[in-house]
Hints:
Elements: H1 2-10
Amino acid sequence: MLQCTSSFFKNKRKMQLFSCFP
C-alpha cells in the first residue's frame, strides 16, 4: 500500500489513489 500511497501524493491533483487497486 506504500506504493499506492506515494502515487496518491504524487497525483494528489488527480487523486489516483485507487490506481494501484484493480
